[in-house]
């Protein structure tokens, strides 16, 4: 082991250890949500110091299956060395952009997925955000900005939080670490005004990759104006690339952050959620007393909702599951769109005879529910439910959704609820920005919501907050009981009565082979647009089909009692095809129309569609 002196033993060891030992017990530190593993070298100056005894400790590591690791990067002989300098590779920073987020690989060990979010890259991105923020705020030399930093339950969270903190501090800004937090809480920290908890923050960074696998991670950025947009993220990454080039030219070293403070902001955030429900029920202290509500956090950051929100309101939360943060996500993907995840919360509701089930994604900006009968309230049903609640409060308002919502939802919103359905593009930021734009033109909109479970309300600063979305449901339960108008989740289920739902709803992904000669030098995006143009032209001459008169994304067509939408993915070389129909036979007919129109595009992999339409 002496040969390892001064080198870094990378994350792969811990990731592989964890994968091989998923059954060992868990013990968590509340504020950092990172593993603590016994029998490891001690900390010195924030690094693990390697001693002569550490070789034996490492060999014995796999014997210890009752805890986790506190840091996943081990520094050998760190006690006698001020810093350990990792090797630096050239990085294409713009490839890390994922719309209005940054995403990358943070943990090695998965074949074909090299680490792209190294500590130097992360530090450069954080410094880039700091430079962007300084320009945006235009502060003078006497003012010192501060940035709040939080993370979800991923196993790379602590390492990246440290790197982010160094990057922010290197630009002369103060850093306030929240530890385990939700994405909505990070935005809220830029709005809260309370100097005792160092608020408001001038900017906020959430370290998360939503529902992606354990080896991924990423960043979301906020100011009091909301989340950064695509152009802002591009600007941050361009600044980061310049900062990183200095690392390459002058060398990179890990320096301790001196201006870092820690705050339990989640206590403030959850207290506000509790107050919102009490207010809706007429300031009753325990408006949910007697309600049995189970929560499934999927081992993400949403476990707080049971003990910190529901229980203070009087709810019974026994049977709640996967509340403890675990960045390997051993039970199911924390994703309200995932079938296994929805099956898990549905079973928990039925097994515990609960009134309601609530499920969150990893960073709590998405959510869904299940009623007492096991009926899922996600996707179109959740949009219908939220539309019903919002339109009671704001009659006639416009509901903005993404492009894959059903025709039945349009009919429900417009004919039954008396609202207006504005179907826009995929992407939660697209939907939110469109709602904001409509309001600026004089068209009132109070809800922007995606089928994915991202939902934002005007009353909540257009923040897509999964916990706040569920609070709106709890408000309805509490106020209905307080006014004697009903008890239990039937209050919610009754609100979506009359929503027409298709017998068949599928999404097929048609991939573009970027190496195929049929691209003829075009980008996958140009090729995909050519496919859509050709499909649109072929539909125009087909009397059995009708193109949607108003459409903002792809080609949407009605026919055979149903509809299909073929669009280009926001980020990937894929054309997703959504089909909804009253029967499998009708869905196949729609699929055959698409297959006939795109067959000449040889770089398009239609195998999923071909399989679907086979007799």
From TrEMBL:
The keyword Magnesium applies. Its EC number is 5.4.2.2. It catalyses: alpha-D-glucose 1,6-bisphosphate + L-seryl-[protein] = O-phospho-L-seryl-[protein] + alpha-D-glucose 6-phosphate; O-phospho-L-seryl-[protein] + alpha-D-glucose 1-phosphate = alpha-D-glucose 1,6-bisphosphate + L-seryl-[protein]; alpha-D-glucose 1-phosphate = alpha-D-glucose 6-phosphate. CDD domains: PMM_PGM (cd03089). GO terms for biological process: glucose metabolic process. Pfam families: PGM_PMM_I, PGM_PMM_II, PGM_PMM_III. Keywords: Carbohydrate metabolism, Glucose metabolism, Isomerase, Magnesium, Metal-binding, Phosphoprotein. Its cofactor is Mg(2+). One of its GO terms (molecular function) is phosphoglucomutase activity. One of its GO terms (cellular component) is chloroplast stroma. Residues 99-239, 272-374, 379-480 form the Alpha-D-phosphohexomutase alpha/beta/alpha domain. PANTHER family: PHOSPHOGLUCOMUTASE (ALPHA-D-GLUCOSE-1,6-BISPHOSPHATE-DEPENDENT), PHOSPHOHEXOSE MUTASE. Belongs to the phosphohexose mutase family. Monomer. This is phosphoglucomutase (alpha-D-glucose-1,6-bisphosphate-dependent). It comes from Gossypium stocksii.
């Amino acid at each position: 082991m002496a040969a390892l002196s001064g080198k870094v033993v990378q994350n792969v060891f811990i990731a592989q250890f964890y994968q091989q030992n998923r059954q060992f017990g868990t013990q968590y530190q509340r504020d950092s949500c990172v593993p603590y593993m016994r029998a490891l070298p001690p900390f010195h100056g924030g690094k693990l110091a390697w001693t002569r005894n550490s070789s034996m400790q490492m060999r014995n590591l796999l014997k210890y299956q009752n805890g986790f690791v506190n840091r996943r990067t081990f520094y050998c002989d760190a006690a006698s060395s001020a810093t350990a300098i990792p090797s630096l590779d050239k990085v294409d920073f713009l490839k890390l952009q994922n719309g209005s987020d940054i995403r990358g690989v943070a943990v090695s060990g998965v074949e074909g997925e090299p680490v792209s979010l190294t500590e130097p890259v992360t530090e450069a991105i954080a410094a880039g955000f700091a430079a962007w923020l300084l320009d945006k705020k235009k502060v003078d030399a006497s003012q010192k900005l501060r940035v709040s930093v939080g993370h979800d339950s991923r196993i790379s969270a602590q390492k990246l939080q440290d790197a982010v903190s160094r990057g922010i501090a290197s630009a002369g800004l103060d850093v306030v670490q929240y530890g385990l937090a939700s994405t909505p809480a990070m935005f809220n920290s830029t709005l809260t005004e309370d100097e005792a908890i160092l608020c408001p923050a001038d900017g906020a960074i959430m370290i998360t990759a939503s529902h992606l696998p354990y080896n991924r991670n990423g960043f979301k950025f906020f100011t009091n104006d909301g989340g950064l947009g695509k152009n802002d993220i591009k600007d941050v990454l361009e600044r980061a690339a310049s900062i990183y080039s200095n690392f390459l030219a002058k060398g990179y070293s890990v320096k301790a952050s001196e201006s870092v403070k820690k705050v339990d902001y989640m206590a403030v955030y959850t207290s506000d959620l509790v107050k919102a429900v009490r207010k809706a029920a007429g300031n009753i202290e325990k408006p949910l007393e007697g309600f049995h509500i189970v929560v499934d956090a999927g081992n993400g950051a949403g476990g707080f909702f049971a003990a910190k929100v529901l229980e203070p309101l009087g709810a019974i939360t026994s049977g709640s599951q996967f509340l403890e943060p675990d960045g390997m996500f051993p039970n199911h993907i924390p994703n309200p769109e995932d079938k296994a995840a929805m099956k898990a919360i549905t079973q928990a509701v039925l097994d515990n005879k609960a009134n309601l089930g609530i499920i969150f994604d990893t960073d709590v900006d998405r959510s869904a529910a299940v009623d007492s009968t096991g009926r899922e309230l996600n996707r179109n049903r959740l949009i219908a439910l939220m539309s019903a609640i919002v339109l009671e409060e704001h009659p006639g308002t416009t509901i903005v959704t993404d492009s894959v919502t059903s025709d039945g939802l349009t009919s429900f919103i417009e004919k039954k609820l008396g609202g207006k359905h504005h179907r826009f593009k995929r992407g939660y930021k697209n939907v939110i920005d469109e709602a904001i734009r409509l309001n600026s033109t004089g068209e009132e909109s109070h809800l922007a919501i995606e089928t994915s479970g991202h939902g934002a309300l005007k009353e909540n600063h257009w923040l897509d907050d999964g916990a706040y979305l569920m609070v709106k449901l709890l408000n309805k339960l509490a106020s209905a009981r307080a006014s004697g108008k009903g008890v239990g989740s039937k209050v919610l289920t009754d609100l979506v009565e009359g929503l027409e739902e298709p017998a068949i709803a599928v999404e097929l992904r048609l991939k573009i082979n970027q190496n195929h000669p049929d691209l003829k030098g075009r980008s996958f995006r140009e090729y995909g647009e050519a496919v859509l143009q050709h499909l649109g032209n072929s539909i125009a001459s087909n009397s059995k089909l009708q193109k949607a008169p108003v459409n903002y994304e792809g080609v949407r067509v009605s026919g055979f009692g149903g509809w299909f939408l073929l669009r280009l993915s926001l980020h990937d070389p894929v054309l997703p095809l959504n089909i909804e129909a009253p029967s499998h036979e009708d869905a196949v007919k729609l699929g055959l129309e698409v297959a006939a129109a795109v067959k000449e595009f040889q770089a398009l992999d239609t195998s999923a569609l071909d399989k679907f339409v086979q007799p």
